[in-house]
Design goal:
Blueprint: E1 2-7, H1 14-28, E2 33-38, H2 43-51, E3 59-64, H3 66-75, E4 83-88, H4 94-99, H5 105-114, E5 117-125, E6 130-131, E7 134-138, H6 139-150, H7 156-168, E8 172-178, E9 181-193, E10 215-221, H8 228-236, E11 246-251, E12 253-258, E13 264-267, E14 270-273, E15 277-289
Parallel strand pairs: 1-2, 1-3, 3-4
Antiparallel strand pairs: 5-6, 5-15, 7-9, 7-13, 8-9, 8-12, 9-10, 10-11, 12-15, 13-14
Helix pairs in contact: 1-5, 2-3, 6-7
């Protein structure tokens, strides 16, 4: 059985037309499905917990953006029998775009009908929180807070918030624990990634692969205001490893310890207070419908 999870508030006008196009693809393939409409935060996670706890071979299809995909992943109860399909249908579709999933909803539906789900990784935090795309603390959180408070629409809101954050964000102290050693940092960001993109298309993890059994790690230490424009240009070009104060590597596990008593992290754009980034890769645990070339 296929369960399509979609936000009911998006099913007006163009949104309803897109849903009907998707369902027509499923009807044409004689696919058995049920549409589950979310109305409030947490509904997607609860629906997923319910349909992946039956012991049956079910497919959860997320018709939404990064935030809904995040909720669904955190609701998965049975990775052995159940699979995931993504139909991009939100403002932020960074994970889907980086993974090569068509941004056109009809083509994404056809991929699910004609394709085969393949094993991919995700990020598992010690707290129990899961992330399919990226987890970070620092300036990425500041960008999101500015984005959510701005009231702007579309992808451009992330870029505007990033520019503002680069001008105003203050570096913070944290400790990285990796490969049996500890390193002290005074930096702008500490993040781990499974996907390639962040914040509406920014290539923060340009070399990341969702099925290599590794997380990509980035740390950017303090950069003077005068050097920020050059660093920003490199970030936008996907050349984060060329930023002078950036440290990038891959790992199976890593831990960031924020020296502040209270702090906020982000996972797929969802904000969490005082959750430690003690991360490991869950290798090949999730099966996702992907193009053959990915």
């Amino acid at each position: 059985m296929h369960y399509v999870i979609v936000n009911e508030t998006h099913l007006k006008g163009k949104g309803l037309k897109i849903l009907n196009e998707v369902l027509s693809v499923f009807d044409g393939a004689d696919l058995k499905y049920e549409v589950l409409k979310t109305q409030k935060r947490g509904d997607a996670k609860r629906y997923t917990e319910k349909v992946t706890s039956t012991g049956e071979k079910n497919t959860v299809i997320v018709m939404g953006g990064d935030g809904t995909v995040h909720d669904v992943l955190n609701g998965f109860a049975d990775f052995d029998n159940c699979e995931l399909g993504i139909i991009p249908f939100g403002t932020g579709n960074d994970f889907a775009e980086g993974a090569g999933i068509p941004l056109d909803a009809k083509k994404a539906a056809e991929l699910i009908v004609n394709g085969t789900a393949r094993p991919i990784d995700f990020i598992q935090l010690a707290s129990g929180l899961r992330s399919i795309n990226s987890v970070g603390m620092g300036i990425d959180v500041d960008v999101l807070k500015r984005t959510y408070s701005s009231g702007e629409k579309g992808k451009g809101k992330y870029l505007s918030a990033l520019i503002s954050a680069l001008k105003n964000f203050e570096a913070y102290d944290f400790t990285m624990v990796y490969d049996g050693k500890e390193e002290k940092h005074h930096g702008l960001i500490a993040a781990v990634g499974n996907g390639r993109l962040f914040g509406g298309g920014i290539k923060i993890f340009p070399h990341a692969k969702i099925d290599d059994g590794l997380m990509d790690v980035i740390i950017v230490d303090y950069i003077s205001k005068a050097r920020i424009p050059a660093a920003f240009a490199k970030l936008m070009a996907g050349k984060v490893d060329k930023i002078k104060k950036a440290t990038t590597f891959t790992a199976k596990s890593v831990k960031f310890i924020n020296d502040s008593e209270h702090y906020t992290i982000q996972a797929e754009g969802e904000l969490y207070d005082d959750v430690p980034i003690d991360a490991r890769v869950a290798e090949g645990k999730l099966r996702l419908y992907l193009p053959q070339s990915k």
